[in-house]
Amino acid sequence: MKDTYIFAIESSCDETSASIIKNGSVEIATVVLSQMDIHALYGGVVPEIASRHHIENITMVLEEVFNKAEMAMEDMDAIAVTYGPGLIGSLLIGVQAAKTLAYIYNKPLVPVHHIAGHIYANNLVKPMEFPLIALVVSGGHTELIYMKEDYSFEKIGGTLDDAVGEAYDKVARVLGLPYPGGPMIDKLSLEGKDTYHLPIPLDDNSYNFSFSGLKSAVINLVHNEEQRGNEIRTADLATSFQNRAIEVLTKKTMRAVKEYQVKHLLIAGGVSANKILRNRFQELCLENNIELTVPQMKYCTDNAAMIGAAGYFAYKLGRRADLDLNAKATEILK
Ligand code: KG4
Ligand code: ZN
Predict the structure, then answer these.
(1) What is the CATH number of domain 129-294?
(2) Which of 96, 101, 159, 201 is the most interior residue, by most CB within 10 Å?
(3) Tens digit of pLDDT for each residue in 49-66?
């Protein structure tokens, strides 16, 4: 069978990225240009600055990926692009680049939902087996998704307030750690002890999550201790926060796996890079005879390789966009 090459672009937040993916599972070349160091100066992503940097970087990133792959646009079967959700100014740069290339080279244009991309990052590790449950944990999303086949996304639960990555970032900030907070808490928690008493968020029979109460509990605790002149044991507080968050994520996910009788669990999104989260799921899946796939570390956070993987399946299913494709800041997974 002839190979299918997808050229993919991702620019939904603060990474400008392009990738060439073969048959939805083989990475030929990927370039990710992160603006993280710039936004760290402000303690979070500044949308206006992000879009300006995407404009400056996109041509360079596109050229570099073709050089790395020693391929040309003519070799591509289709162009896939993240059209949403994300920062509108950032998304627009990638969408415009993809539309321009599709027009000039007369290639099919395939719109990809950012979260579909995070989920399909797992297909670069191992072919996804259906039915499956995907736990999406990122800076903007915390969702449990049931998939009975490719591109069938049934949301069975999600966060009622903050996404788990957002809670990590806010807790890190109050602990005086630099942005992005997730990787810092991950590192610190390896030295800490679970000594602080914090509430378990939304510990009920639903598949929903709530992280704002846990986040507020940490913020209040820090303020109270400061007022009393007590020292905060930062590593211990990071560990206690993380353990409560992971406890609820693993508990509800494993219940969903059982109830929906799936044999395959995927973890996706930036927080899937977390070492304790990965270890805990590995233990639980081993105990319960469930196959677990987690993305490669480099493809947990935003990148175009995952958009190329998701784009391949969207392409095969006949999903196409016209040249009037617009970016969408909010968009449900479909
Ligand atoms: O998927 P992503 O790059 O962007 C969104 O689509 O939101 O996820 C970014 C989020 C940030 O909140 C970041 O703090 C978190 O993922 N993150 C982590 C780790 N690495 C990134 N959270 C916990 N542990 C990590 N190792
Ligand atoms: Zn993302």
Answers:
(1) 3.30.420.40
(2) 201
(3) 999 999 999 999 999 999
Rounded to 10 degrees, the C-alpha dihedral 296/300/304/309 comes to 60
Q: Token pair of 256, please?
A: 């969903």
The finding on whether 169 has its CB within 6 A of some atom of ligand 1 is yes
- Around ion ligand 2, residues with a beta carbon closer than 5 Å are 138, 302
Distance CA 60, CA 66 (A): 10
What is d(CA 174, CA 181) in angstroms, rounded to the nearest whole number? 10
**Does 86 contact ligand 1 (Cβ within 6 A)?**
no
- The answer regarding whether domain 5-120+299-316 maps to CATH 3.90.320.10 reads no
Q: Which two tokens stand for residue 90?
A: 């950032």
Q: Does residue 117 line the site of ligand 1, with CB under 6 A? A: no
223 CA distance to ligand 2 middle (Å)? 31
Tokens 């986040």 sit on residue = 215
pLDDT tens-digit map of 123-170: 999 999 999 999 999 999 999 999 999 999 999 999 999 999 999 999
